[in-house]
Write a structure and sequence with these properties.
This protein is of the alpha+beta class. The chain is built from 27 helices and 31 strands. The structure holds tryptophan and zinc ion.
Length: 871
């Protein structure tokens, strides 16, 4: 940890590994006070390595105790090897040999949640990206692939279930109450996909028959109390397996597929070969405890990790700069899966909203980086929205440019060419080039250039010639280390719509130049362009729409995404006008045209409730912040609250009707239609409560009491908890706690609702909650629920002008950095945006960054983020 200036690793320095490991045999003696790991590595020099006769260099964490080291049975003395800062070096080794190494670990003291650690009494591992080097000495890099055989030995009562990758091939019992199981994974894999689990776990079992008729055992493990929350994950897994066969022609390749739910986990889930390990928040689902959003997350993450079996495991990354090769492609795959299982348009709206708020913000921050970064200090800091979400958009653009059929041929070729290999994003694009015969050289700038491109579109209509011309200019702002950007190759899906709503043209344009003109003949009336349909490229689009044109597109566009987007553009413009009025001290006004447009939407009972709910949601404060030249926290909040309450009051009857229309007595199901009805119902309830009229808070309270599912209960709970009726609010906060105190995931919601409460005294409330027994600073889910929610969803208070919110966060980060550097670095994100704020706030944020910088014992994780932010 005490590295003051961690090394920077560069993509251009990549060298093939000097040594390969054909087999890795592991034996874990799991005990309460320690774990002994015996590793036998069958090592050969790599014929493809540039330098021959290199010393053997293995990665190994400093905290790991080396007990014994031998080569071909010969014990090595201390003078035969060197151990220094994360390495073990052995000179003069033969060409082929077996290295045996015994290390001693202290999993119960491992709070980093990397390597081998304990979560609620069970042993588990997290090896991606560089956690395996905390277990034993190893060439812990993804281009070294090895066949693993793993034996676990542990107390039979405490740890009846012993799991690792592949198939169980042998097991037995010792006299001392201990038992053992040996697992063989036939597929060579990089060390980051290694996993083990040992614990007293309950199991839901099912099976799946692959297209070729093989039967696969499906097992989902969790703590016994959560056994009733595994059905949805199991159904999602089976759906994902079928979908990957049908859409990508990919079958599963082992006889067993296991998922284990753990409560202490840094991220969402991990695709370890045959043995996925999941954050409980991404696998447990039950109507009474899980919201609709939670159900959809479980479905998406289960699918995501399953899809990695091909896009990540069978074909893996050559080095960590290629992370988006597996993550971007797999996010694209899981997004398409979710779109097929639910509503395609709604899924697209949700994903684009995330991209526009969070990824665009990252792209304009000091941590901005290309989808394929060029350098890093700590790779854990690059599991980002850019690598995942923008990476998925890049794959989506390839899909759009080639069309579904060629894209499938390209993915087939990619899997066929590179099965069993560790490859690069260039290899992925090369397969798409081969099948399409296209040159994608320019397209690859999407991988190498950071920043969000800007498209400026203007047009001209010649009525006599029936000619319509579009001029598109592209540019991309500078980002760290990249002052000048080259133009991108991108698909621009577009429609031309007549004033009365008829579609005159629909098609796909390809942009390659800095400025390009497109001419459309035979256009008999002046059209309104529906640009970037389906968000065909991850760019900021500028076109000077009139309010009337946006209202027309909102009513008539045949592209559902652009219908929604037209409404968003209009709302954003109106909100920005009110922000200006607020700053100028003028009264704000709510547009009658907007009210009438919303009234029409609300009265249109033929509209899909899910779509309607999306259209009637104002852009979030986070998104308005991303769009602002300089973020004015107070103006954004005031303008949005003004619009929200105005629309609430003006359409009170309509909200009530929508509420009643969607308040059916159906049995809970998390399908797209029911989810859509609940989202409209709860949105309508929120607007009703926003009128601050008496009956509606009572309605919320009634819904809270009568609901049979967490979606409705939590929505009502949050409205009451944030209301000014403190008596009722306190009563429900207590009742909710009493009801759910033993459900850890529900308690996260309880914390988040309070952390995002916008009323005065918010900081004092979160300070007090951090002392509450349900809070546990070692559990990342709890940290996200309290600290993450306060800093991300309570801008008013986090950005208090006196800097108190910033100081509180910095205090936490310094404390957490000692314990879990990955989480500390992630929670730091809001402070990295300091340049976007007014001088007073920017100064306060800088003070806290500098305070961290001046701390001597920073992890590489936090050091990288803080130092880059101050640059
Ligand atoms: N590969 C995981 C995914 O599917 C990401 C992940 C899980 C991870 N745990 C991690 C990354 C810990 C870094 C550290 O997206
Ligand atoms: Zn992933």
């Amino acid at each position: 940890m005490s590295v003051k200036q961690p090394n920077t690793i560069y993509l251009e320095d990549y060298q093939p590994p000097a040594w390969l490991i054909s087999h890795t045999k592991l034996r874990f003696e799991l005990e309460e006070e320690q774990t002994l790991v015996r590793a036998q590595l069958s090592i050969q020099s790599n014929p493809a390595a540039r330098d021959k006769r290199m010393p053997l260099e293995l990665f190994g964490d400093e905290g790991m105790e080396l007990c014994r080291l031998s080569i071909d049975g010969q014990i090595l003395e201390a003078c035969d090897y060197q151990r220094e800062a994360g390495y073990l070096r052995i000179n003069n080794v033969p060409d082929t040999f077996v290295l045996e190494c015994v290390t001693r670990l202290l999993p119960h003291e491992n709070t980093t949640l990397e390597g081998l650690y304990k979560s609620d009494g069970m042993f588990c591992t997290q090896c991606e990206a560089e956690g395996f080097r905390r277990i034993t000495f190893f060439p812990d890099r993804p281009d070294v692939m090895s066949v693993f055989s793993t034996t676990l030995v542990a107390d039979k009562c405490l740890y009846p279930v012993l799991l690792s990758n592949g198939n169980p091939v042998d097991s037995g019992e010792d006299d001392d109450g201990r038992h053992w199981v040996t697992w063989d994974d036939p597929w060579p894999k990089p060390s980051y996909l290694f996993a083990l689990v040992a614990g007293d776990l309950a199991l839901l079992e099912d099976s799946f028959t692959t297209l070729s008729g093989r039967e696969v055992a499906l097992r989902i493990y969790a703590e016994r109390k959560d056994l009733d929350k595994l059905d949805y994950a199991m159904q999602s897994l089976k759906n994902a397996m079928r979908w990957d066969e049908e859409v990508y022609g990919r079958e599963y390749d082992l006889d067993i597929y296991m998922i284990v739910a753990v409560d202490f986990f840094n991220m969402g889930a991990m695709e370890n070969k045959g043995l996925n390990i999941f954050n409980t928040s991404c696998v447990l689902a039950h109507p009474l405890t899980t919201t609709d959003q939670g159900f959809q997350r479980v479905e998406a993450v289960v699918a995501h990790e399953y899809f990695h079996n091909w896009s990540g495991n069978r074909v893996t990354c050559r080095d960590w700069f290629q992370l988006s090769l597996k993550e971007g492609f797999t996010v694209f795959r899981d997004a398409e899966f979710s779109a097929d299982m639910n509503s395609r348009t709604v899924k697209r709206i949700e994903d684009v909203t995330l991209l526009r708020t969070a990824q665009f913000a990252e792209d304009s921050s000091p941590m901005a980086h290309p989808v394929r970064p060029e350098s890093y200090m700590e790779i854990s800091n690059f599991y980002t929205l850019t690598v995942y979400e923008k990476g998925a958009e890049v794959v989506r653009m390839l899909h759009t440019l080639l069309g579904a059929e060629l894209f499938r041929q390209g993915s087939d070729l990619y899997f066929e060419r590179h099965d069993g290999q560790a490859v690069t994003t260039d290899d992925f694009v090369a397969a798409m080039e081969t099948v399409s015969g296209r040159d994608l050289t320019q397209f690859k700038r999407w991988y190498s250039q950071a920043g969000t491109p800007r498209l400026q579109v203007s047009d001209q209509y010649d009525a006599r010639a029936c000619e319509y011309r579009l001029t598109v200019r592209q540019s991309c702002p500078p980002s760290p280390g990249q002052d000048h950007k080259q133009p991108y190759h991108l698909p621009l899906a577009l429609g031309l719509v007549a004033e009365d709503g008829t579609e005159l043209y629909a098609g796909l344009l390809e942009l390659t130049g800095e400025e390009q003109e497109f001419c459309f003949d035979n256009i008999k009336q002046c059209p309104v362009p529906s640009l970037l349909r389906g968000f065909s490229a991850p760019v900021k689009l500028e076109y000077d729409y009139s309010d009337a044109q946006l209202l027309m597109l909102l009513r008539h566009d045949t592209d559902g995404f652009n219908r929604w987007d037209a409404g968003q553009r209009l709302s954003i413009r109106l909100l920005q006008e009110q922000m200006q009025r607020y700053r100028d001290g003028q009264p704000m006004v709510c547009s009658e045209a907007l009210i009438e447009a919303w009234r029409q939407l609300l009265n249109d009972t033929a509209l899909d409730p899910a779509m309607l709910a999306q259209c009637l949601r104002l852009p979030s404060e986070a998104q308005l912040s991303e769009l602002a030249e300089q973020i004015d926290v107070a103006a954004i909040h005031a303008a949005r609250e003004f619009m929200r309450t105005s629309l609430a009051a003006a359409l009170e009857q309509e909200w009530l009707q929508a509420y009643q229309r969607c308040d059916t007595n159906e049995l809970y199901a998390p399908d797209a239609d029911a989810v859509g009805r609940r989202s409209l119902k709860n949105l309508a309830l929120a607007y009703l409560v926003a009128t601050e009229r008496e009956p509606w808070l009572a309605l919320a309270r009634q819904q809270y009491q009568q609901s049979d599912n967490m979606t409705d209960q939590l929505a009502a709970f949050a409205l009451v908890a944030h209301s000014d009726d403190r008596e009722t609010a306190e009563e429900l906060l207590q009742a909710f706690y009493q009801q759910w105190q033993h459900e850890s995931l529900v308690m996260n919601q309880w914390l988040s609702v309070q952390a995002s409460d916008p009323r005065d005294g918010a900081l004092e409330r979160v300070v007090a909650l951090a002392q509450h027994p349900v809070f546990d600073m070692r559990n990342p889910n709890k940290l996200r629920a309290l600290i993450g929610a306060f800093c991300g969803q309570n801008a008013q208070h986090f950005h208090a002008e006196d800097g108190s919110g910033y100081a509180w966060l910095a205090g936490w980060i310094l404390q957490l950095d000692q314990q879990n550097p990955q989480i500390a670095a992630r929670l730091l994100t809001p402070l990295t945006r300091w340049k976007r704020y007014d001088p007073v706030r920017a100064g306060q944020m800088q003070v806290q960054l500098q305070r961290m910088m001046d701390t001597t014992e920073l992890s590489a994780d936090v050091y990288e983020v803080v130092s880059k932010s101050l640059m």
